[in-house]
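Fold this sequence, please.
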Amino acid sequence: MKSYLKKTLNKHWLSILAMLSAACYTISSCQKVDNWLDVKSQLNHVRPSTLEDFWALLDEENRMNRFYPVDGLAGSDNYYLTPENFQAAGDLLQNHYTWKKDIYNGIVVADWANRYEVIGRANIVLEGLAKLGTVDDTNFKYIKGTALFFRAMNFYNLAQSYSLPFSNENKSLPGIVLRLTSDVNVPSVRSSIEETYQQIIRDISLAIDLLPLSSGYQTRPNKAAALMLLAKTYLVMGDYEHALQRSDECLSLSDGLLDYNSNLIKPSSTYRFPAFPGNPEVQFFARGTSNRSIGPQTNAYGYVDSLLYQSYDVNDLRKSLIYNNSGNGKIQFRGSYTGENTIFAGLATNEAYFIRMECAARLGSIKQALADLNHLLVNRYKKGTFLPYQLADKDALLRLVLLERRKELPFTAQIRWEDLRRLNMQPEFAKTLIRKISGITYELPPNDKRYALPIPDKEIQLSGIPQNER
């Protein structure tokens, strides 16, 4: 436990910070709120100023490592709702599930605000460090790298939800609001998609140079986690050369995989994988929402797509460990790397392997891609049953890698949603999603504008930034 957190931040500062986080992303509204002047006055006198203060801000797990967005999963194709469960699901999930243009209908949505609260904390830390000047101190560098990582991680997540995917055709379109200051008087504006990704890359690249090889806590990033985040960013941008390079560097620092035959796995438990912080694959730990309105990840309403479930080999332990088969033909997800009833939304080694093998396959490095694929799968199958793949065809290998990626990471963060977005831009992988509810057919074609979720209504009202076209 990071005991100094409670010693450093008193209740007064925490209450001020809570008010700041609620307001820092709706800048234009601040002048309309009378008591905001009070908040600004108090902030002038209650500012973190020491390295201990900065760690306290970044180490508050309930703020920095929880509630990462998973709304994209609700619109993905890895699950389905029965007509009865659809009716019981409530407006938010129903609207996500059928890709309505207006998802929220006035419902207050926390994902946007939660991400900008984390970004606001990171900015406060970066500004505080800047006031200390250039300090050649390991702890100083570690704190700065951590703040840059958190800002980049949250910009990345916001970009996957609230802007269209990166492409030459899309890059001049509106991206996200890049808050680079804690000054609440600076108006919110949407940067372009290209500017959004440039900032993410800038932040992560700086973080890589500052972060240590080992963080000591899975809730803090290390160098491998930052390298993986950069590889993820390049992957969704379609820059396979840089994604391959960064994922290779990541795995050179941290390449451990869980053997699904090992004693760390508990097949008879409700949640079969090691609970936090006991999973050695995890490079950076973050949880998604546990709100059951988001779908199958909480086993409340949704069932796993039958074709996805059937694609697992009988000796593939993922089939029994990731899912729960109650015998009624309806399969539920149980395989979160949180070891509990929340979605794992962090970074783990298995994803790093899939980034490297996909990029290697795309670039024609068949031997490397096959080596990674076989190495991962031998740790997923019942001991002694896996027969290594031997493929010479680049296209066949890429299709196999993408299938196994989907099977490995079906409800991790918003990965399936992110993959649909980026793969739709390649005709050979483009997919039209179809739902049928009570005789009505709903469709989401490839590259549809609805692959960018609407910005929450309240944010549009308060800040005046443009809404996504849907």
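Residues 3-16, 22-37 have pLDDT under 50 and may be disordered. The domain at 11-263+345-463 is CATH 1.25.40.390 (Serine Threonine Protein Phosphatase 5, Tetratricopeptide repeat).
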